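Thread: quick sanity check before group meeting

JM: Hey all, I'm pulling together slides for Thursday and realized we never actually wrote out the predicted structure for the chain we discussed last week. Dropping the sequence here so it's in one place. If anyone has concerns about the input, flag it before I start.
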Amino acid sequence: MAEYQIVVDGFLNNPLTGRRPIETPETEINRSNVLKVVMGKAEPIHLLNKNEIRFLHNYYLGSQPVLHRTKEYHAEITNRIVENHANECVGFYTGYMSGTPCSYVRSETATGDGEEIARLSNALQYEGKDALDRRLWQWMLECGQGYRIVLPDKGYNGNYPDETPLLVDVPDPDMAYVIYNSGIGRKPIANVLHIPRNYQNDLNDLICVYTPNQYFEIDNGKVTKSENHSLGMLPMVEYKLNPERMGLFEPAIPVLDAINDLESNRLDGVAQFIQSIMVFTNCLVDKDALNQVKELGAMCLKSTSGLPASVSQIANELDQQQSQTLLDSMLNVYRSLTAMPSATGSENATSDNVGAVIVRNGWNHTEARAQQYENMFKYAERQSLSVMLKILRDTAGSKLMASDINIKLPRRQYDNQQSKVQIFAQMLNQSIDPQLAFTTPGLFPDPQAAYEMSKPFLIAAGKLGEDGKAPKPQERPKQDVADTNAGNVADEQSADTNKETEGE
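JM (edit): ok, ran it. Output follows.
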């Protein structure tokens, strides 16, 4: 276990290397060991993580070490410039990953139709899940971890899907954590949630502990409440940005601090050049004369024979060109560490095609990093989805299972629209389930909703049966089969023609 991070003027004294997992060899938490595990083992580790999470959040907000910068010489000229690139990269990836809402679509192995999945998506949208997802992504990008808790809503009146029996929230990661078993599989065995009662004193928090079947409250080191619950699973799920739970800009903090120092020194250099020291040679100037120079901007000097009087300034201007070269180098390192695309500069004003621009400006690295984050998000989202569906089955009579749903995180719906439309049209004309044409090209933000809306038109076109399901090959109208065969023959003839042309 790492040593406690000492905070000096609001900043940590050691480099950050991700958040620590909270693990215990216990296989379950019950009334007999809840104080031992939570207060004796989990809370000390959580305090370490909380200290770092708050530092990273403040860093994102702009409270960075350069604000405590001091100078030994010319202390009166001390600029403290914060170029908040941490806010820039977190804001960019938050929009990139959650700008288009997460959607649920019917899986290939689902037994029912997609109408119930569409109702679930609409109901969660009314509950504000899109906004909660954005908040969740921001926490994940800031400090490497976030949490989603799903509980039964006690105010549910039974009119699903106009309202849901779900109470969904995203607690701050400095007030929540998950306890894992340290054995093979590292399965979660408990959720812990802090309820603040005095924001000036964290030690006065009410600590709520959830196990799969029990709920405890710990107040001032004592268990004050213990009861069973019927959920049968943990209500809170941890979302990790990466296995190390490291924030997006965390590896780049030394570079970001150096950028702030450089920009502050550059501005100091300009100020010191303008306010340079005056040197009087072979003349005596009193305080009144200096004040007169400040007011009038000029002064009169008398020279004697052999001792000419003169006034000069001690000025040594900082080389701004070399400083800019160093700044550009550090910005490139920052972009490499955070996989940020280049959005400024004259290199963007070219007539290259879209693919060349994507490669040159670093969007391919951005997309590769986003794919890693998406995989981690989907793993946790499926666990949250299992909790939601369990509550829906118990209260609203839903028959959905987690295996019936695929999770989609559509990104960049705005690019290559023409190609996506062409792929969509070609897939609709093939002998495949029409739903694949809606989910594969990435043309629709919510493919399941688009498919459900299009069902009447697909039925009218003979792509779906009267029951709204894709007909089996032997059930397809002969005209459709003939059209498909004709299209295949045309494709073969076109391919033969291309070969003959190449041979010539």
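AS: nice. Residues 1-10, 481-487, 497-504 have pLDDT under 50 and may be disordered. The CA atoms of residues 208 and 217 lie 5 Å apart.
JM: adding both to the slides.
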